[in-house]
Design goal:
Length: about 90
């Protein structure tokens, strides 16, 4: 297994793409994840990355894998960034 260096700019790009392709915005997602919109904005700008708990919550919210969010290598779970059905989280 080779070491992987996380690319904050690429992670930020995926975060923005996931949020906007679901018709959401930073404020609504931040509220759902119980974080500040400013913190989420920093992730989306590639200035910081979420800690493991926040990254996991983000992935659950959008039904994607942590591998996809952080590495961009794995296929999304189903469809194009679907939300959980019936608000199951």
């Amino acid at each position: 297994m080779e070491n992987t260096i996380l690319n904050t700019e690429e992670i930020g790009k995926r975060i923005r793409e996931i949020i906007y392709s679901n018709g959401e915005n930073y404020v609504s997602v931040a509220k759902e994840l119980n974080i500040t919109p400013q913190g989420l904005s920093k992730w989306g700008a590639g200035r910081t990355i979420p800690d493991i708990q926040n990254a996991t919550n983000f992935c659950k919210h959008f039904n994607i894998t942590l591998d996809y969010l952080m590495l961009g290598e794995e296929e999304k779970n189903q469809g194009e960034y679907p939300l959980y059905e019936n608000n199951e989280r």
